Amino acid sequence: MNQTVVIYESKYGSTRRYAQWLAEALACPLFERKQFSPKYFAQYQMILYGGGLYAGGLSGVRLITQNWSLLSDKHVILFTCGLANPDDPDNIAHIREGLSKTLSAEMMSSIPFFHLRGGICYPGLSLVHRTMMAMLRRMLLKKAPSERSAEDQLLLATYGKTLDFTDRAALEPMLAHIRALQEAGSIG
Ligand SMILES: Cc1cc2nc3c(=O)[nH]c(=O)nc-3n(C[C@H](O)[C@H](O)[C@H](O)COP(=O)(O)O)c2cc1C
Predict the structure, then answer these.
(1) pTM score of the predicted model
(2) b/e per residue, 9-45, with b = 16+ CB within 10 A?
(3) Is the CB of 91 under 6 A from ligand 1?
(4) Residue ranges of the chain with pLDDT lower than 50?
């Protein structure tokens, strides 16, 4: 039995791409969150969950937080997919601060997190998301230029455009971590 599963929620496709690459590399099943019932958790030893970042929240992570009691004897690994560059430690700190609003202290300390970079296609955004990004831009324009972070500047410079930072190679640290766990615990 294959004991590892990849589950994801993706609104515009970046997380889906990473999830597909992961499942392919690990030769394991892949589910969209909406197609995964919590009763399926019993079949797996390692749960890899990923979602897009929206206003600091991890899309669909309720699947993990609301079913935490079913996961106590399993390896749970989360990956986030956002526009912020994960090579910048300030961005990682910011992402973790956002996650800590919905994940318990125990989840924050016990779950390994991996942060991946997605993209954005402004012309394809839903009306709600387009409005949110327009509000964010207006807010950033009110900041003094000297107070704008690198991410603020990137957002202002690329507002309205299409960006794609998805990169298969960015999965390598996560795959190395998973493979080490699989080898140590003979997880399939
Ligand atoms: C309304 C909105 C809010 C966003 N908030 C964040 C955020 O807080 N942090 C971040 O890094 N990226 C943020 N993004 C960028 C998305 O995370 C990025 O587009 C990601 O690739 C989406 O993944 P998905 O297509 O799999 O849903 C936001 C995008 C939109 C449209």
Answers:
(1) 0.96
(2) bbbbbbbbbbbbbbbebbebebbebeebeeeebeebb
(3) no
(4) 1
